[in-house]
Specification:
The protein is mainly α. The chain has 63 helices and no strands.
Length: about 1200
């Protein structure tokens, strides 16, 4: 930045009005922490251009950094919310307001910042400010909002937990502190408050575990120690039991310190009597501590009205050395002023000088000789003093803190070490970097039980100043001490270095060898560690640690049998109450399949040491494998109390509860969620989500399973198994949208199985997405060309896609391919038949439908469509056979009504009106508002000459007519109304209905023919002929139009042309609803009349015979008229002929027919054999 500053300064001098130059130079000053100069430049820039937001922001920021908070707030308030720097401006303004104690303004700025950009830190800040303002509800809301954004936000969890604790909402407080402890296992505050919450909830076992965890992080935590004291007091255990001596504490924590912390805990809670008891216990372990005496005096003097803080202040005052005894503190440890607990790590030579002077003046007289001790200065004298002190220590068995040796010998050794310490410190004043003096000072403090901090300081300085790396520069004791210290700090490299040095100083030493092995094991140097443990076990076969460690290494290497052998040796030489050996043996037995031995060993070990987590986990797993689910649940729950939020514990508990079915479902889901909060790997999370969803699906909690799996696929979007499971849930819920989403994702992941892809295609096909469905089926067929289900659906797609040219041919080809693979596939047979039917291959379609019926005898689709094909082919007997089978089955209502309608039409085509009426009425029972059945019933009534009923039914059809039925039906209804009116002679009404019909469809052939028939009745033959010709122009070979036109010609005696029309009509095919067989019979009658006009009596008689075969009503009249002709009662017969509803003849024509019938009868009488034949034929 110096170079940049030089250039920008020059630019400012050249162009004093350059805003950018001022701003850039200000930023350089800001980076160089020259905030005042940067502020001046920004202020000058704002004078030149007052509205520049970036400069305003920079000015506010540099004012904040310069701690000019009021000015900073003013500038930040000028930054608008629309600016990109608004969020940072609001956050800085909020912090500045906090410094100015303007908490309301701090809240406003924090809330504005949170609106601009939701951030957990900003929300936490707002919560803290609301706490300062005393609004706990708003504070809780903001802390909760921060956790919504970042569920692991530690500060918000802690604050919210403390807030819930203060409000006595224990359950919520426990949840927040547990989450925080799961996230950060080094957070002492979290586990301490968790212990307090469990104490309030009277969960005393969990409280103890939490207190132990707190003390591992903070060895003298007053709250944890107070709770332990209270728990033991509630259990009825007095202080005389000295339970506190069993606590695992660091080596630098004395019993007196422990008692002081417990007393402080009671004092903060104003429990004066209990605190006095613990202060007396502290005095017992530190009888000469002035602080204890002062505190007790205050308590005795003031009693329960004492101010607890005064007592706490007296206890926390700095400890003074005892004047009568050199450096011996209340716990029997050296505590000269130079080694006070609160002293900094690096000791100053000035302080050492003053302390040593005081020591020399007070303790200069030798306890044995009464002479004044001489201070050694030279290295040789220091060596001499060191050897003398070591020899004195050997006489009492090592360090002075041990209880070996006589009190006199210990006093002599103690004095020797004190003299050495004084001399070493004197030397260090002259030579601060003298490694020998540093070594002697450290050795003296170690032997006299001095503070660990000072010992480490001297020893490490000595090591740093010594050129030798692994020699015996410090001696065995110091190296062993430093190695232990490094091991405690988890510095395996340092521990290895000093244990190696200690082993070099004292070859074969078991302690150093084991320590070195542990250090190597921590650094994953298993071979070296194993070699050292084997050496230790060889030199001392009773070395329990060596056997145990060797067994553990064998377990790690997977050599379980060897591990069991070594663990068994450890159990033989170890004490029966050694829990570590029992745990090791139990683990080895578990690995080698010796379940009973493992259970016994682990149970015994846990009885001795109840909170060993690995042993509890192994025991619980053994119970689980043995099927003892209740025991497994019990141990896993105990382990979970020790290790709240443990992943493996939670998962096993979830699985065990899941085996209980519906009874354990809720607990299983709870523990599965706890396991997920431990942030497992993606694969493990997938398994957990899958198992949790399976539990929810097992109790039919489909919505919960859906929520679970939707969260799972958001977290693990590439898991085909989870998407497949979610698809199963959506299938159960019939959620089409969800099914599509799952199928699409499975397709993207290439994880869809052919069956699933086929199901997806079916769903798309059902929704009308034919193209997308076809793509799915084609993909399945590409993978498996012989997949019948996919081929059938693919063919169905082609069949339903008219947008593709040749789609029916393609569908037919695929259906035929399916039939090659499975000739009896009903769906393929029906599909192929459909394609052939639509392509007018009616014979092939009929064969395929008949094959369908062989595969499934009462298949409604094939029965219906086969009947329809046969109806079109005028094969009415077969048609009626299949359709009768259809309507007699329990088929769907649509197929039944369709079958009844076709049956009615078939019977009408055969002039079987009674049967047709029955089927029409049966259809109306199923669908009373179906206009087609009303129309069919009206048609039957018309043919049966019941014209009034026909008109009524046609009107009913019009009432129920719906535009969806099509316009053609409405035209037909009007046409048949006109026919009924024409038969009744109401020609005006007939014409009115015809106008309606032809208005809707001017080319309607039947209406045009009816119009011509009305003209005939009105003797308007020319207009009738025009109408018939119009009909023939629409449909050239329409039989009824030809017959009617020929009848017009017959009426004007144009016999030749009439015969031409009749002959052409007879060449056409009849037998439908609109063209029944009687039409052809009518044509034969008209031909006979034309031949009579041409005097061709024989020809006329032949035509009359044919007419009787095709015209049912005419044949019935002729059969009944024989007797009338014989009797000579011909007038009645003439009236009967004219009364035939489906035959239009005038009076003269009726007489001609009677005469022709008489001629036929006369001929029959002349030829008796022929008469019999004629009678039989006529019948």
């Amino acid at each position: 930045y110096d170079g940049a500053m030089w250039h920008f300064q020059r630019l400012v001098r050249l162009d004093p009005h350059s805003i950018d130059a001022h701003v850039s130079l200000g930023q350089c000053y800001e980076q160089g922490k020259q905030y005042s100069r940067a502020a001046q430049l920004y202020s000058h820039a704002l004078q030149l251009t007052p509205g520049r937001t970036d400069v305003i922001f920079l000015y506010g920021k540099v004012s904040y950094l310069a701690k000019q908070y009021k000015l900073a707030v003013q500038q930040f308030d000028r930054v608008p919310d629309s600016d990109t720097r608004a969020f940072e401006a609001r956050t800085h303004a909020a912090k500045a307001c906090r410094e100015l104690e303007l908490h309301e303004r701090a809240v406003v700025n924090a809330e504005r910042a949170a609106q601009l950009r939701p951030h957990p830190d900003v929300m936490h800040f707002a919560g803290e400010e609301y706490l300062r303002l005393g609004d706990q509800q708003k504070a809780a809301q903001w802390f909760s909002s921060a956790l919504d954004l970042e569920p692991g936000h530690a500060s918000s969890l802690l604050e919210l937990g403390q807030l819930m604790y203060r409000q006595s909402r224990w359950q919520e407080a426990e949840g927040h502190f547990s989450r925080l402890w799961e996230i950060d296992r080094s957070n002492a505050a979290a586990i301490k408050f968790l212990a307090l919450v469990k104490y309030k909830q009277k969960k005393f076992d969990s409280c103890k575990h939490c207190c132990d965890a707190t003390l591992r992080l903070e060895p003298l935590n007053t709250d944890a120690l107070w709770m332990l004291a209270e728990l033991h007091r509630h259990e009825g255990r007095s202080m005389e039991d000295r339970w506190y001596l069993g606590l695992r504490m660091h080596s630098d924590v004395s019993v007196a310190d422990l008692c002081q912390s417990i007393a402080t805990g009671y004092l903060t809670r104003k429990q004066v009597n209990e605190s006095m008891e613990w202060l007396k216990a502290m005095q017992h372990y530190s009888p000469s501590d002035v602080r204890v005496q002062t505190a007790l005096t205050l308590l005795v003097t003031h009693g329960s009205s004492v101010n607890p803080q005064d007592v706490i202040d007296a206890l926390e005052s700095r400890r003074s050395p005892e004047p009568s005894k050199f450096g011996m503190g209340p716990s029997g440890q050296a505590c000269a002023s130079s080694s006070n607990r609160d002293e900094p790590q690096h000791l100053s030579s000035r302080k050492l000088a003053s302390d040593d002077t005081g020591v020399a003046m007070t303790n200069g007289k030798n306890s044995n000789t009464g002479s004044i001790a001489q201070i050694a200065d030279t290295p040789e004298e220091l060596e001499t003093l060191l050897r003398r002190a070591e020899r004195a220590s050997e006489a009492v068995g090592g360090r002075l803190t041990s209880s070996t040796g006589s009190s006199t010998a210990r006093g002599i050794a103690e004095q020797e070490w004190k003299d050495l310490l004084v001399s070493a410190k004197s030397a260090l004043r002259k030579r601060p970097d003298d490694p020998l003096a540093l070594r002697c000072a450290a050795r003296a403090l170690l032997s006299t039980g001095g503070p660990d901090k000072d010992i480490r300081d001297y020893a490490r300085r000595a090591v740093d100043l010594t050129e030798e790396v692994a020699g015996s520069t410090l001696g065995y004791d110091l190296h062993a001490y430093l190695a232990a210290a490094f091991e405690k700090e988890r510095d395996a490299l340092g521990a290895e270095k000093h244990y190696s040095a200690a082993l070099g100083s004292k070859p074969g030493d078991e302690r150093a060898m084991l320590g070195l092995a542990r250090a190597c094991a921590q650094q994953r140097e298993k071979d070296k560690a194993k070699q050292l443990y084997e050496q230790a076990s060889t030199s001392n076969s009773n070395c329990v640690e060596a056997w145990v460690r060797l067994s553990e290494l064998a377990l790690e290497d997977g050599d379980f049998n060897e591990a069991h052998r070594l663990a068994a040796k450890a159990t033989k030489v170890a004490s029966p109450s050694d829990a570590a050996v029992l745990f090791c043996f139990g683990q080895a037995c578990a690995k080698t399949g010796r379940k009973d031995d493992a259970l016994r060993a682990l149970e015994r070990g846990l009885a001795l040491q109840p909170i060993d987590s690995p042993a509890m986990l192994t025991l619980a797993n053994l119970y689980k494998k043995a099927g003892r689910d209740q025991d497994a649940l019990s141990w896993f729950k105990r382990l979970l109390e020790i290790r709240p939020g443990d992943y493996e514990c939670s998962l096993n508990l979830a699985q065990l509860h899941a085996t209980k079915g519906a009874a354990g479902a809720s607990q299983a889901v709870h523990y599965f969620r706890c396991a997920l909060q431990c942030r497992p790997s993606a694969h493990e999370a997938q398994e957990i989500y899958s198992q949790m969803a399976s539990v929810q699906m097992g109790i039919s909690a489909w919505k919960d399973a859906q929520h679970t799996l939707e969260g799972a696929v958001r977290e693990i979007p590439d898991s085909s198994d989870l998407w497949r499971q979610l698809l199963k849930v959506f299938n159960q819920q019939q959620d089409t949208k969800g099914q599509q989403q799952c199928h699409r994702r499975l397709g993207q992941l290439s994880g869809s199985r052919p069956s699933e892809r086929t199901a997806y295609g079916e769903m798309l096909l059902n929704e009308g997405q034919v193209r997308e469905a076809r793509e799915q089926f084609e993909q399945v067929v590409n993978i498996d060309p012989n997949n019948v289900a996919a081929l059938v659906k693919l063919a169905t797609c082609w069949r339903q896609d008219p947008s593709k040219e040749g789609h029916l041919e393609e569908a037919k080809r695929v259906f035929e391919r399916v039939l090659q693979l499975n000739p009896n596939s009903a769906e393929a047979l029906e599909g192929a038949a459909y394609c052939n039917r639509k392509m007018n291959n009616m014979d092939q379609a009929a064969q395929l439908y008949q094959q369908c019926l062989k595969a499934k005898i009462n298949a409604e689709g094939p029965l219906y469509y086969l009947g329809e094909i046969l109806y079109r082919q005028h094969r009415h007997a077969e048609c009626q056979h299949y359709l009768t089978r259809l309507v007699d089955t329990d088929c769907s209502i649509d197929f039944k009504t369709g079958g009844l309608y076709l049956l009615a039409k078939s019977h009408v085509s055969l002039d079987e009106y009674e049967e047709a009426e029955q089927h029409a009425r049966a259809g109306l029972k199923l669908k009373p508002n179906q206009p087609h059945f009303w129309f069919m019933l009206a048609l039957v009534k018309n043919r049966m000459a019941d014209y009034d009923a026909s008109i009524t039914h046609l009107r009913q059809a019009l009432v129920h007519y719906d535009a969806a039925e099509g316009e053609q039906l409405r035209v037909e209804i009007h046409d048949w109304l006109a026919q009924a009116y024409e038969r009744k002679g109401e020609y005006t009404l007939a014409n009115a209905e015809l106008d309606k019909a032809l208005h809707r469809d001017p080319s309607h052939v039947s209406s045009l023919i009816t119009r011509g028939l009305v003209h005939i009745q009105l003797k308007q033959l020319d207009q009738a002929e025009i109408a018939f010709l119009r009909a023939l122009a629409v449909e050239t070979n329409h039989v009824l139009a030809l017959v009617r036109l020929g009848y017009c010609k017959l009426l004007v005696n144009d016999f030749n042309e009439a015969l031409q029309f009749f002959q052409k009509a007879l060449q056409q095919r009849c037998g439908t609803v609109a063209l029944p067989k009687s039409v052809k019979g009518t044509a034969h009658i008209y031909v006979a009349l034309a031949l009579m006009g041409q005097q061709d009596v024989q020809g006329a008689m032949a035509q009359l015979l044919k007419a009787r075969k095709n015209h049912r009503n005419f044949n019935a009249v002729c059969e009944g008229g024989r007797e009338a002709i014989v009797k000579g009662e011909c007038e009645g017969l003439v009236q009967q002929l004219r009364g035939i509803s489906d035959l239009d003849i005038n009076l003269a024509q009726a007489w001609q027919l009677v005469h022709l019938a008489a001629k036929e009868l006369e001929s029959d009488f002349k030829e008796p054999g022929a008469a019999g034949v004629a009678a039989a034929t006529g019948g």
